[in-house]
Amino acid sequence: MSQPSFELAGKVALVTGAASGIGKSVSDLFASSGAKVLGVDIAFEEKECEESKAPLQKFRADLTAGNQVQQAIHFLQNEFGRLDVVVNSAGIEMSGNTVELSEESFTKVMDTNVKSMFLVCKFTIPLVLKSTNSGSIINVSSDLGIQPIPNTDAYAASKGAIISLTKAQSKNWAKQGLRVNCIAPGPIDTALLHRFHSDATLEFVKNNMIPTGRLGTPREVASAALFLASEGSSFINGAVITINGGLLG
Ligand SMILES: NC(=O)c1ccc[n+]([C@@H]2O[C@H](COP(=O)([O-])OP(=O)(O)OC[C@H]3O[C@@H](n4cnc5c(N)ncnc54)[C@H](O)[C@@H]3O)[C@@H](O)[C@H]2O)c1
User: Residue 12 and which of 23, 34, 132, 171 are 20 to 30 A apart at CA?
Assistant: First the structure.
């Protein structure tokens, strides 16, 4: 029996939210594991996109706009000619309960976290199916999509929707070898987490709610994405993997 492969040699990956935090770490790890990667993010500067080169190229796009998603995929198709793996990590946080949140805020969270993922999947899946019989899509949800805490109503709703979207998608193209899985991180040490929670709250969470006594790193989430992208996870489909140091519910 041959050894399972956890390499990405010969594969092409598209990673959203690649300018920062988890998406950046996924892009770096995938590129150093043999993949050619296109990172897409609204925060990339034009200059850094122009100067980027294989194995990690960068493309600026607002993924809530279907035409910009399509431009990114046309670029990828021209550069690489195939697509094997998609990691949907772009997202925003938003505090507030249902009474406090404005209609515009709720729409913005759902558009950025859920609609963009729908659009990226909609326009990449045909290319993945054409390219390979072992494709992998990894959608980034959150622990808060499973166990919301107070005043995260819009964010928690969006992250719960991502879990259902993933489970539905995982049923559609499995016979063609396309697996769709979800990663649900707990508190990971990124800019987003520090915008969402005060230092005092994070200190309390670390000391009282995370058995490992520390925040997770983006690299620890990227490692799980690498596993799900590789042939080593070939029978894992429709799964939701929590990465949270054993966070207490
Ligand atoms: N950090 C955590 O503790 C944590 C926990 C659970 C889930 N998550 C999820 O992980 C994902 C990555 O989060 P992170 O912590 O790395 O955050 P981050 O803020 O460091 O990175 C998010 C990236 O998404 C990009 N982005 C936002 N809106 C976009 C748009 N419209 N088009 C294109 N790009 C856009 C941002 O520019 C940014 O670079 C998010 O979906 C987040 O909800 C994070």
Answer: 171
